[in-house]
Amino acid sequence: MNGSRRRTPQEIADTLRERIRTGALRPGARLPTQAVLAGEFGVERGAVRQALRVLQEDGLLSDVSKGSPPRVAEPRDGARDGPQPTMVALAPRLTEAFAAPHVRIDAVCLTAQSLIPALGEPLRLIHEGRLRPDRIDARILLPGRDINLAFPVSVDAGSEEDDAVHQRWLAMRNAQGQVLQYNLQALRGTHDIDVQVTFRALPFTPPVKLYLLNGAEALFAHYMISRREEPTDSGTLQMWDTLGSESLLFSFERRSGQRDAAFVEQSQKWFDALWETITSDLTLS
Fold it and tell me: Rounded to an integer, what distance in angstroms lies between the CA atom of residue 187 and that of residue 195?
């Protein structure tokens, strides 16, 4: 963070807020001392104190006024259970999952669009030596390349745009899947972690997305279909599509009671049944 320009208290608060949001700083954990934070951001302690007060007013820190470093506040009632957009909710859940010795990620989705940025934080913590799983197994179910997708599809069905819309989705599916695979498998060489990333093809378009983390949590969202425009070199594609990163993600945890535990168990059985029966080998090309 050090550089020629000093950070403002608001910029410091925003950086610490992001660490809390992604799970790098977890509820109950103490922050570094004001001296350490001042050194990291290249500012005086007064600027750090102002930033900490901002976060306390936002309900993110507690014990700011005491002599010892403040703690990250526990989530307010219902804050964890309330649905949030996938792009916001997925990263901290994955970060928690990567604290386990054996990380298991099962996903059913249209593309890997949301998974790639969400994995950024746990991968960063691994590279910093703050997380050290022994093994990572990722199984991803994506629609097959040759099926008739329910979405994305051209608004004008049967037009010349049909193939262009399908090829656009296929290119995204392949490129994002390859990036996901590379980012995880690179941990074999850099950190000697046993990594397995496997894709299989669904014979249908999933109307929902599902992430299963270590068999302990299920994250579920509905794909919301809307009309979208995509500029191209030859004009504009009009399509019925979904923006999965904005889909509200609902969390179900085994430890949260019988209802949630049953949902996690049944979701895992559903995923395993798809994986072992009607899906097929998928090559990202």
Answer: 7
- Does 277 lie in the same domain as 137? yes
Determine, yes or no, domain membership for 244.
yes
Give yes or no: residues 50 and 121 share one domain: no
Which structural domain, as residue segments, surrounds residue 248? 84-281
**Helices (H), ranges, the chain:** 9-22, 34-41, 45-57, 86-97, 115-118, 120-127, 161-191, 258-276
**Mean pLDDT per 10-residue segment, the chain (285 residues):** 67 86 80 91 90 84 80 64 79 92 97 94 93 96 96 88 92 96 96 97 97 96 93 84 90 87 96 98 90
CA gyration radius for the chain?
A: 21
Q: What is residue 149's three-state secondary structure? A: coil
For the whole prediction, is pTM greater than 0.85? no
For residues 83 and 56, what is the distance between their CA atoms, to the nearest angstrom? 23
Q: Are residues 158 and 275 in the same domain?
A: yes
Question: Is 4 inside a domain boundary?
Answer: no
Q: Does residue 67 share a domain with residue 99?
A: no
Residue type, 194: D
